[in-house]
Amino acid sequence: MAVIVLSNREPYAPRTGPDGRVHWTASIGGLTTALDPVMQREGGTWIAWAETHPELRTVHLPEARPRYRVERLPLAEDDVRLFYHGFANGALWPMSHYFLERAQYRREEWDAYRRVNETFAQAALDCAQDGDVFWVHDYQLALVPGLIRRARPEARIGFFWHIPWPAQDVFRTLPWDRELLEGLLGADLIGMHTAAYTRHFLEACARTLGAETDVGTVRVGARTVRVEARPIGIDVATFETLASSPVTAERAQRLRDNLRTLMLLCVDRLDYTKGIPERLAAFGTFLERHPAARGRVTLVQVAVPSRERAPAYRHLRTQVEGLVGRINGQFSRDGWTPVHYIYRGLDREELVAHYRAADAMLVTPLRDGLNLVAKEFAASSQDGVLLLSRFAGAVDELPGAIEVNPYDVDGLSATLMRALRMPLEEKKARLAQMRQALRRHDLRAWTADFLRDLAGVAALPGPLVQL
Ligand code: ADP
Ligand code: G6P
Prior knowledge:
The chain has 467 residues and is of the alpha/beta class. It is built from 16 helices and 18 strands. 6-O-phosphono-alpha-D-glucopyranose is lined by residues 9, 29-31, 138, 162-163, 306-307. Adenosine-5'-diphosphate is lined by residues 28-30, 33, 267-269, 302-304, 345-346, 351, 370-373, 376.
């Protein structure tokens, strides 16, 4: 049995270097960060969009130590605009994150979404051998399970929805709510990050489709689709080992020496769901309220560029840069700059050195399916505090974090002071508690459980009926 993974984003993106050769750089984002190690272990095929270099169709990755094959699908320029920027990121992304005022539902974009989903499904069918398992990922490809099921009624199909599944009153604003659900229900097993998301999903199936549902299952003709909360884990051991290496310790020390102040760390894709302006505003309030903190605390914001062609994301960048400038203009003094803003991705070693150097990590999305950054920090830090939004899926699993409301600028500013004053023993106890939880459900277990349960599905007796 081989695994065929499908996702819109590819794990590594090709870039032509100054030497004229193509180099493959790891894509940044929760989905690819989680699945690349899975595929490095399992092998198999990964089907994804070829955003650049469309001439490279089949590649073996990672470059240095190939473990799996990537089938790259070029998309027409119009489809990129209508499917990716349009329906996926202009309708489904904001709707699922409760930003209804940003969601735009356009027929032409929905048509492109269907078309591109068909392209992905066909590519998977073309390369599948008997017994292969299909594992489809995320909101860009919700129709793929139904399309594969129609062509291969007996196929084993898993789906993982990486973002929030919103409350039914939000979901039913979508004009194609039925079609989206029917597409997803082509899968045998649907995973989501939290119990609340699966409850919302089951409610949608019951109310929108009139389907028969039970705890964790939906009946679709003669088939039973399992819908379960299975939050993605991280590779805890890798983060722990990297974080405790002498090289990382030295890098972290250098970061601290350069700052010469306490360090608040924020690491995000530059996305409006992440609550970056609200967080910066809270830091501004904190500096206003606590003059003694001026010159003693620095906020380091690492923001990796994301979806830069979309006006909403360009606007966010301008807004964030304006706020950074305003806070720095107002409070900088004697060589101290309150906000250090890094507009790029960090490589894994740099990232972990930052996690280790931080006195507190601020993960304050307005809404987030899970948030891997919070887990990575909890696995890497030795003496830091995690402030975590109540609207991030990961909050269910990280009781050692201090839960915050990202909309409450005053509350956030007060919690910052509490975090910075927390005694070392309490910080260590909280980290130990989180590490224990992370180890119990790490990435290896997540993958093994999902694939085992998916393989088991086929053993169930009874006819399989297509949608
Ligand atoms: P999302 O899926 O919305 O991107 P997550 O927090 O779940 O959010 O996952 C983001 C992943 O990308 C994490 O593995 C994190 O380490 C990585 N990442 C995010 N921002 C950066 C950055 N500025 N530099 C390096 N890695 C980043
Ligand atoms: C989130 C989504 C992923 C997506 C990633 C990066 O993690 O759940 O599906 O790949 O963001 O976004 P991008 O639009 O660059 O793929």
